[in-house]
TrEMBL record:
The keyword Signal applies. The keyword Signal applies. Residues 1-23 form the signal peptide. This is CHRD domain-containing protein. Keywords: Signal. InterPro entries: SOD-like_Cu/Zn_dom_sf. Transmembrane segments: none annotated. Belongs to the Cu-Zn superoxide dismutase family.
Length: 280
């Protein structure tokens, strides 16, 4: 049998616990709590190969979105501005949604997003269909240096891809590949990678009609290949005449890719390869 004093202490303790539980639930109800919807996007290194990470979008119960950037490799003491920009990363675009700067010591930034910088409401669902990308910059004084970057929303890559060989032609030692990666919106990210290109050069590249053996006119212009890196990245959405042209079109197209020596010497082909229906 419990004596009166013991019963009193137990009753008082239960009252305190029940009051605490009630108060905690009430306070939680007033806060924007996360729900089950979560989307993670990759942020890839740009200027510094040691810096990379993720951007995690979480739907909150008040309609807002929590965006957490987590990077590895950022030096302690730095503050790195971050934004959502319009268009794809390879096309570039203006700042549309400003995010909290990434703390270099933790590599972390958390922002609650309810609207764009222009004051337009934007929901979690809107962001998952957004035509945009994230940039993390070196500093407020050097926004031109990008330390991490990644496409979001409709520009996200699906994981489907097709690669074609670009064989050596007029210049000995230059060859490589062109990789087309499907985006969620049906467009494609095209990456040309060549080995053997001389530093400082710039090599125009195009999709041409017909097979390489037949020859044909230019229908799509890639961003030029940087001779120093041997790389070019382009967004493929339309042909040069405005005709819609996406990932699925590339796979069946009657065409080929030429990489030229220079803008003033398009006749000299440094690498070439059939694509689409002409590929082996």
């Amino acid at each position: 049998m419990l004596n009166y004093f013991t019963k009193f202490r137990i009753t008082a303790l239960l009252l305190v616990l029940s009051t605490f539980a009630f108060t905690s639930c009430k306070e939680d109800d007033d806060l924007p709590l996360p729900v089950k919807d979560v989307k993670v996007y990759e942020l890839y290194s740009v200027a510094d190969p040691n810096i990379e990470g993720t951007a995690t979008f979480v739907k909150l119960n008040d309609g807002a979105t929590s965006i957490t950037i987590q990077l590895s490799g950022t030096p302690a003491g730095g503050m790195h501005p971050a934004h959502i920009h319009g268009n794809t990363a390879v096309e570039g675009g203006g700042i549309e949604i400003s995010l909290q700067p990434v703390n270099g010591a933790s590599g972390r930034s958390v922002t609650i997003v309810r609207e764009t910088d222009a004051g337009m409401p934007v929901s979690y669902e809107d962001l998952l269909e957004y035509d945009g990308y994230i940039n993390v910059h070196l500093s407020e004084d050097d926004l031109g240096t990008i330390v991490a970057q990644g496409d979001i929303g409709q520009n996200e890559l699906t994981g489907e891809s097709k690669q074609y060989a670009l064989e050596e032609r007029a210049v000995e030692g230059i060859s490589g590949t062109v990789l087309f990666e499907e985006r969620r919106n049906g467009e494609a990210l095209a990456t040309i990678f060549l080995t053997g290109t001389p530093d400082g050069g710039e090599h125009p590249a195009h999709i041409h009609q017909n097979s390489a053996e037949e020859g044909g006119g230019i229908v799509y212009t890639f961003n030029p290949v940087n001779g120093t890196t041997g790389m070019s990245k382009s967004n493929v959405a339309t042909l040069d005449d405005g005709t819609p042209f996406g990932y699925d079109d590339v796979l069946t197209y009657d065409g080929y890719v030429n990489v030229h020596l220079s803008a003033t010497d398009l006749a000299t082909i440094v690498a070439q390869g059939n694509i689409g229906s002409n590929a082996d």
